[in-house]
Input
Amino acid sequence: MTAATAVLREMRWWDIEPVLELEHELFPDDAWSAGMFWSELTHARGPHATRRYLVAETPDGRLVGYAGLAAAGDLGDVQTIAAARDQWGTGLGGRMLTELLRAATDFECAEVLLEVRVDNTRAQKLYERFGFEPIGFRRGYYQPGNVDALVMRLSDPASSVPVQGETHG
Output
């Protein structure tokens, strides 16, 4: 199965349970709680929305990825991005990140930040392909494992969003 077969759509409350299953599979030591996702989704709709959350779903209804962005003023923050292991290397992560950066542009964000585990080189390479640059560390950010986070920044997210039909490979 390729990422192209997974459809990206807005995350809704009924997606929280399958999102949590994938969250616990991928991040067993520092998984988000249902309450964290509920809290984020309360800010994702309406005229004053400051969040964009999406899921990737296969034609048979299996949830294979999710991602979220928060915006405050002119700053965006990638809150989470995850793809099922069988989707790694298919481009799904890049597709979801592209959608988050489009949302950052819609929110008029001048820059986007994110934190990524220092031991997650696969994700770091994805972010670098989109123009994110390392700017620092957050010591012990991921708990309870006490794993450091690499903080990365993308200036001008609008310039990183590929033209329709282009990809960041």
Q: What stands out?
A: Helices lie at 16-26, 34-41, 92-106, 121-129.
